[in-house]
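User: For this week's homework, look closely at the record that follows, marking any run of repeated tokens, and judge whether sequence predicts the tokens.
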Amino acid sequence: MIETATDGDVRVVTLDRPDRRNALTPAALDDLEAAIEAAEAPVVYLRGAGSAFCAGADLDAVAALDGRDAAEAFARRGQEVAATIGDADAVVVAGVDGPARGGGVELALACDVRVATADATFAETGATIGLFGAWGGTSRLPCVVGLGEAMDIALSGRVVDADAALRMGLVSRVVDEPRAVAAEIAGNDPAALRVIKTRLRDGASRNVQERREAEAFADLHADFDR
């Protein structure tokens, strides 16, 4: 259910299960991780086929989990895939067109840039069925939108439209064609993109981050040619 294609300097990764709104099975998580790891382009564009971005975990697969150990392993696997997205050398851009629900929101949160169309909607609906987003959502969502908004979204299960997502910082742009944003980013220097992503994601203390930032700038400057 994961399709890949190259478009210039952008590797397009498509969640391709439109009949189930691109809900993810364990096998699909494996394939998604492999697609991200194999990407050699400086930018990866993650999208969903059909009318949805991603409905999250396939609920049939969730219901089939046999016991606590299997449920924990499934959550861990989703966390690993989200970490692979965040740690990728490439800049990963999520293009959200249509609904993103549960694990779909969490995969988008793991991306470096989230861009939506006007038809995009977001919801963490786990609480409505007695679960919650366990693919890193409880750590990433507050970092992106703030604790208050994260509590509201996760506890209410409410649907957030594209304009509200833009206001709270869940997405950085609302555009007609999200792939154009991926192409725009890919037009920049690949080495600079890689360093900037690493520095912005650095969770060390400010002093350590600033030292690493200066060192990385010096590394890039060594190859700088006006």
Remarks:
- The longest strand covers residues 2-7.
- The mean pLDDT is 93.
